[in-house]
Amino acid sequence: MKHSFFAYVLLVILSAFVIISCSKKDEPEPSMGDQAAGTYTLTKLALSSGLTADVPFTNPVNGITLSGKVEVKKIADDKVSAIVTQSDKEQNGKITETKFDIGEVILKKAASGEIEAFVGTAKIGGYANSLLTVNFVHPSLGPITLIGKKN
What we know:
This is Lipocalin-like domain-containing protein. With about 150 residues, the chain is an alpha+beta fold. Helix content is about 15%, strand content about 55%.
């Protein structure tokens, strides 16, 4: 009887050890560059005047529908490049695309967990929860903030 009790205890201990040692190990967090890389569809824009609009947005005056995307490409674990593409669709269906090359951006992790984007010492945007924020100066609209959702 003593042998069966000890065998049972030993079996329980070995089973617990196997279960613990086979548990899923934590995957390392992907690099900031990997997390931020991707294509984002613009969902909102905000002008420095305080005016905001959901995107796509149709101008009630001329009927042109504005939409856009941001393509973010990983250069290194802490560096990406980004190109903003603005699409204007006229009422007759003609689409005109304008591209704005933001260039290389350095990524830094904020205490909040957000990935912040910098050009030099100027913060130009951020990434968190599949949302990208980009601040830049549009040639005709001036300073704007774009918000895009990762596809």
